[in-house]
Amino acid sequence: MTLTNDAAAPVRNANRFYIGGEWVAPSSDSAFDVIDSSTEQLYFRVAEAQAPDIARAVDAARRAFDEGPWPRLTHAERAEYLRAMAAQFRERIEDFAQIWPRESGVVHTAALHVGEAAAGMFEYYAELSGTYPFEEPVMPTAGGEFGLLVREPVGVVGAIIPWNGPLGLIAAKIAPALLAGCTIVLKSSPEAPGEGYVVAEIAEAVGLPPGVLNVVTADREVSELLVRDPRVDKITFTGSTVAGRRIASLCGERVARVTLELGGKSAAVVLDDYDVAAAAAVIAGQECFLSGQVCSSLTRVVVTRRKHNALVEALASIFSGIQVGDPFDQATQMGPLALRRQRDRVEGYIAKGVDEGAKLVTGGRRPRHLDRGWYIEPTIFGQVDNRSTIAQEEIFGPVLSVIPVEDEAEAVAVANDTIYGLNASVFTDDVDRARGVARQIRSGTVGHNAWRSDFGVSFGGFKQSGIGREGGKEGLLPFLETKYIVLEGRPKGFEESVV
């Protein structure tokens, strides 16, 4: 029997949806149970959207875009709403920090930073309102006296969010979409809907016009209706590559715009001039964040054979000392996995690694001192064949595969021998060597001597890790359409423009 958690979720109206600027009753009594990942107790319950609820949310967003004031405001006017939302994010920092550990397993000390990061994202795009060239003069090359290159909002956006890091991904999608002038249907994950509810409360508090942001929670089958709806101009999705392939095919059928941030199997290439202990400290430390449930985690550690054993020993020494437990305990370094099925998945991959001949060095079990919660020990495999299952498939848990190679050339080849291309890092004391290797790796981000993931500049992947970019100026582009206007004279405000 599932018990009720003592901690009440800091959300209001969990039995309703935020649509058209109002908290509306759902079309049915169906609901999702949100389970605390560390206690296996019921945290709270939210309404489950059905087809009529999705249709209602899309209709509200469509009317807000076609008839409402939002797309017709100036970018500076929209930026003021973004600044107001940033202030609200800061006021709700502790609320976010209470929700994320219970839904996804991140430790509370790390969760405290997510509200500030989201606020910073909104402030960044607010500042961009004054510097980005939404309308710039150009010289016509095929007739006409004066040209304007105009970047307009793409329209209604369906934003689909996963369960591992909801708030950061919500901010990365809706902040640039709002600045662009889009209206949005935000679809939260059934396993982690709390952040979406708080964001809806923030939208209400700052007075976003009705229909500009609509928030619902639905399972995959009902969510597909959002992807299929011809009134939705663009889908932005973060999640698994399997789901991304499906979304891409559906968007392709109706030529809808799509941004996909999908899976990863990222390589940490440790070159032979770099200190093994230093590399192990960086790699092991980042893998404990969110219990390894991070798409850009450096889960394939590629190292020369002569340094393989030393690196494995250094990683195992750190992993074996990691304090796994209650995410609200200040001493805890790694919390649980988010879901029962996710722990089952990770355990299945660990068994597969053993069966296929990799050497299980440390971890691989449920912690003996924890009889509740979806915990797993941080795990190291050595002598991993890059063709094996654990080296090729995304595990989404604290499991590292150390892969021996002969030299730098083979290390690059192994790093690229995957369907993914989201992230990578090169460990070397030679910055020019790092740059040279980084240019050879087929990945959206390549760090040097550290795990890097920078939504302030650009985040996204090559190959089956996705389509498009999020964060920074690159993250604004997917929410804009380019229009070229050719005039037979100069309009007001451009009399002195040089083209």
UniProtKB/TrEMBL annotation:
Active-site residues, Swiss-Prot/TrEMBL: E261
Instruction: Respond yes or no to whether keyword Oxidoreductase is given for this record.
Output: yes
Q: Where is the Aldehyde dehydrogenase domain?
A: 23-485
Alphabetic keyword roster = Oxidoreductase
Q: Which residues form a coiled coil?
A: none
One family from Pfam that matches here is: Aldedh
Q: Which SUPFAM superfamilies match?
A: ALDH-like (SSF53720)
Q: Which domain of life is it from?
A: Bacteria
Q: Which family is this sequence assigned to?
A: Belongs to the aldehyde dehydrogenase family.
Family matches, as PANTHER family: ALDEHYDE DEHYDROGENASE, ALDEHYDE DEHYDROGENASE-RELATED
Name this protein carries in UniProt: Aldehyde dehydrogenase
